[in-house]
Amino acid sequence: MVQLVAFSQSGAVQHELDTPDRPIELNFQYLNLSDPFSSRSPYSFKFPMPISKVNSKFFSFFYNANVADGTFNALTKTDCSLYVDGIVVMEGVLQMHSVSPKGFEVSILEQVADVFEFIKDLTWPQLFTTEAGTLDTDLDHALTWDNVTDSWVTTNDITTGAVGAGTIVYPLSDSAQQTGAQNFSNFGFFYGQQGAVTSLIGYGMDDESLSVLNCKPAIRIAYLVRYIFERAGYALRSSFLDSADAQKMYMFLATEIPKTKGRIAYGCMAGLTTAYTIQTFQASLFAHITFTQESVSPFYDPDGLITGGNFVAPFDGDFTFNTRFVVSSLAVVALPFDFTVKIAINGVTPASANTAIQAQATTGLTYGETHIVDNSWIAIPLSAGDTLTVHVAATNTENPVTINLTGADTATYFKLVEFDTSAYFVDVSENFPEVSVGDWLKAIVERFNLVMISDPATPKVIEMETWNDWWSAGTANKDWTEIVDQDSIKIESTAKFQKKRYEFSDAAGEDAQNLWWQETHGWIKGRYTYLNENDFVTGVLKSSDVFQRLPLRGVFDSIFEADANNTIVPNVLLPMFWAQDDEWGGHKKEWVSCKPILAYYNGLQDIGTATQTFQFGGVDYTTYPYFSEFNEVGVSLTTKCLAWGYDYPSNFNSPFVSGGITSGITLRYAFYEYWSKMYNEILSPESRIMTCKVNLNYTELYDLKFNDNLYLDGCYWRVLNIDNFQVGGNGLAKATLLKVIAKPLGRESSNCNARPSSFNTDGTVNFVSNSTGAPVSVTEPCCTLHGYVWDNDNSQCFAITSGGGSGSGGGSVGAGHDGTLGGAGGGGGNGGGGVGSDTSVKSIGASPPSPYVSFPLSKINTFQQGSIIGANIKTNLYHTTTGATPSKAQTLVGLTDWIIPLDSIVYVKISAVAVEVSGSAATIGETVTQNVQATVANTRTGAREQTAARDVGTTTVIAENKDAGASATISVDAYQARAGSTSSFSLTCTGATNINMIWFIDMELTTLQIGEDSSLLTRPIVYNLDPNIVEYGNLTPNTIMDWNLPLV
Questions:
Q1: Confidence bin at 957 (pLDDT 50/70/90)
Q2: Sign of torsion, CA 361 366 370 371?
């Protein structure tokens, strides 16, 4: 007996509908081998239901357009259950498509399909709009430093709806925006010392230079996924989402807009839950009244402004309140009494200057009557976190006075009327990305290869686990030998389902770091490409590109981070959402829109210095919130990474990646961790597909799980799909089965039977056998298969190339061209490394040397034509002179000495302005302006000679304008500790006795280096020279220097 039981759309009443005479055909699909990224779920074909009295009433006579009798809505979900002989064969949603004389055409979607049907085109604001049409504001919160810093500890809950501790956390992100009083807008964060001055300068590391209004939240992924299913009407059961790693995963919000979208506070109106009586012995004593009724009409508090019955200011501002008390007493003694209201801030009554707040008395109230005591437009300036308490007193020495909950058409209440502030509440629903909810959830399912399974025993609960966990959890062994039609068995390879290439990639990023990688290497960082070894397949299958990679960057001690390449907070890595502007030689930044970003939150971490602090909200911090694509601090072999595949790690030499403490390389990228086992099994030459006809009864179907091991034809199989299962018929269903083969994590190949096992400090990779686990010698196919770099000359496999690619050195920590922390002493950022896929680069490249050092705070143009190598450099300096003592001018980051490159001449042009500002002999405002030129050099007279720094001529004043009594000079001076050592020059400023002057200087340098074609500067290397002499080989480009060659 077939029964279709449907619930009324209100969910209150069950209806058994009349079923058709013909069988209802169901399809059950678990995995589509042609598209492993897709989500599949059981469903029925469309089938007609008879136009019976029962059905017509249930569907509200839908066939008669002139009748409106009933509540059925074809656009609203209708829960249903399909039974055969009392056994549930499908739980889901009944959808009515059309009606004709043949009947009502309907279909059934199983629960998982119902979820995706519900959300597929849904926007995020629509998701957060309830069925009643109101907006769910539980995630909203005031954007204050208190909330931002509180969020960094995930046991705190900053949301107004108390949705759960740690649901919202604020990253400390660098958007290069103008944010505070300090005049360093659009330069990004920096933190360091100003020259020889011991005080620190910085930007973004305190609340004076970083406005809280530029902070943007991140939301916990596990919360969001559960919320989506709850809105669709289902609960999730998931050990994956409950895992410690999943609880650390967040998505950055508001990445596509310059600032977080907010709204004004909705206000509040709170009343009493119980009446309060002032006894006669309490006369003239103030009593604290708590307003704890916030939810029953007419009261409201959507933003949680009332805590414990008291108002708590969500942010700084001027607030205005009204209070109303419904007061009554018995008429025992006919004497008047007074009723007084006062308000205290943080337990302290305001000073007498604010008498309107201190006490507002209503006098001459009469016993035996009910009085409405209003105190209106009470204006109070408050700081974020201030608590407002309301106190009342009555001069009721004769009779008790009662404060009633309600009166005639009114009630006792406390009400926020208006406020004036620049702060606001974050409207979380408006800060989600433009992508639909359906596409977003599909991308999450893809990233972690999640399966979603419903259980007829718990129809409103969906199980969500990774494919690896679900597949390996299948331990039930069932013998299908007797229920399969042996003559129908067909076995084939999985080839017809395969593609030649499977591409796993995030979206391209427009920020400076991602752009650098994309333009330099030609691919999106962290991609993984699986190249199928099957010679007979074609086509490409690509993952969705909803997310982009998280760009992280160190905080340098200069606005011009890649030039200064030093940091005094070595542990700090912050998200960066800017691109380089053309101004200031590309050092100026501008905010860029980014796609959604996933990251692990690794909690508060030490900034890496015992002597300095950051300051936010007036509080000093020696820690900061650390977000990363890695799930732990210090990357090792077992660290999980959200990137699809391996590429040379950003910030490799940061203590939080490697820093010489850990390997800095992991195997557990997203493809390896969540997809490799599946691909090894379904694309293996050993893999087989069986199609057959099967005689499943209803009990067997009910008990079947897609990870059951089904014994058939001498081995075990698992169900991919069951088609054309007839409910109410006798036909055989068609089953598609996949042979069970045990494959490991990692990439397998016919050309490589080994996998990476560990990484060495020199960057090489060790491998072990897939078969035995024993160490094996690495081969080029194994090396490049895993995305590493093969050194053919030395037969070695490198995960990290020595030097790390192009980066500027010279400091304690180098800065790579992508803006990330590079190696100690000058080895770069993201150079070398493989693609992280089967199509990796297979050779080690070297970065070309540069004849010039980097000039901080400069706009640089370089030129090279053959052996002519030149550059034009423009920068600014400033200085303060005290008296007539000569001293050096400096840049904003404290640079006073400029290196003269080897075999180079530097022509210096200066425009200087000096102004008298103080001193006993000063005339305030008197000025000297000069145009000055000079030339310095660092050259040799021959290849065997040592370099010598010198002034070419003398500093020449081209033009000067000055007040009659003013005196100031500037000179360019080259110097060298000894012949052959480093040569430098500086600008020396000299003022006048007892006069303090400030200087601003424009400097332009034109440099020329003597090329390598000079016969005087090329010579062989000679051993055992004076140890104090620096030797220069000066080989031509691409020439190899060979040492200790055999004699011939």
A1: very high
A2: negative
Q: Tokens 């008390």 map to which residue?
A: 325
Q: How far, CA to CA in Å, does 496 sit from each of 419, 538, 690?
A: 67, 10, 13
More confident call, 586 vs 681: 681
Contact 590, 176 (CB under 8 A): yes
According to DSSP H, which parts of 581-719 are helical? 670, 676-682, 698-703
Residue 957: partners with Cβ closer than 8 Å, 6 or more residues away? 930, 931, 932
Which residues lie closer than 8 Å to 161 by C-beta, 6 or more apart?
136, 137, 138, 139, 140, 304
Residue 584, pLDDT score: 54
CB 329 within 8 A of CB 401: yes
Phi-psi region at 644: left, alpha or beta (left = phi > 0; alpha = psi -120 to 50):
alpha
* Encoded tokens for 950: 């010198």
Task: Give 476's contacts (C-beta < 8 A, 6+ positions apart).
Answer: 705, 708, 709
- Answer yes or no: is pLDDT of 198 > 70: no
Helix (H) or strand (E) holding 230: helix 221-231
Half-sphere exposure of 461 (CA within 13 A, CB side): 7
Higher pLDDT, residue 120 or 907: 907
Distance CA 901, CA 362 (A): 85
* Residues forming beta bridges with residue 628, ordered by sequence position: 600
Rounded Cα gap, residues 625 and 156, in angstroms: 14
Coil, strand or helix: which one is 333?
A: coil
What sign has the CA pseudo-torsion 73, 93, 232, 34? negative
d(CA 54, CA 33): 42
Indicate the Cα dihedral angle 586, 588, 589, 590, nearest 10°.
-100
Q: Where are the beta strands (DSSP E) in 66-223?
A: 79-84, 87-100, 103-110, 141-142, 168-169, 190-193, 200-203, 218-220
CA distance 529 to 503: 5
Q: Which among 291, 283, 390, 285 is positioned nearest to 347, based on CA atoms? A: 390
Quick one: pLDDT at residue 254?
94
Number of helical H runs and strand E runs in the chain? 16, 68
CA dihedral 788, 789, 793, 794 (to 10 degrees): -40
d(C-alpha 731, C-alpha 796), whole Å: 61
Residue 614's identity, in one-letter code, is: F
- 371 alpha carbon, distance to own chain's centre: 57
List the one residue out of 504, 614, 535, 387 whose CA is nearest residue 838: 504
Q: Is the pLDDT of residue 277 over 90?
A: yes
Strand partners, 998: 880, 915
For residue 766, list its beta bridge partners: 758
Calpha distance 939→947 (Å, rounded): 5
β-bridge partners, 934: 908
**Number of Cβ within a 10 Å radius of residue 577:** 27
pLDDT at position 205 is: 63
C-alpha torsion sign, points 485, 488, 494, 498: negative
Task: Name the token pair of 160.
Answer: 């107004």
Closest CA to 752 of 780, 728, 727, 772: 780
What separation in angstroms does the CA of 894 have from each of 396, 576, 751?
73, 25, 56
State pLDDT tens for residues 699-755.
Answer: 888 888 889 999 998 999 999 889 888 888 888 999 999 999 988 888 888 888 898
Give the residue from 950, 635, 653 showing the smallest Cα distance to 809. Answer: 653
Beta strand residue intervals within 883-994, DSSP E: 887-888, 898-899, 904-918, 927-939, 948-951, 956-962, 969-976, 983-990
Question: What would the pLDDT profile of 419-439 be if each residue is shown by its tens digit?
Answer: 887 778 899 999 999 999 999
Q: Are the C-beta atoms of 900 and 949 separated by less than 8 Å?
A: yes
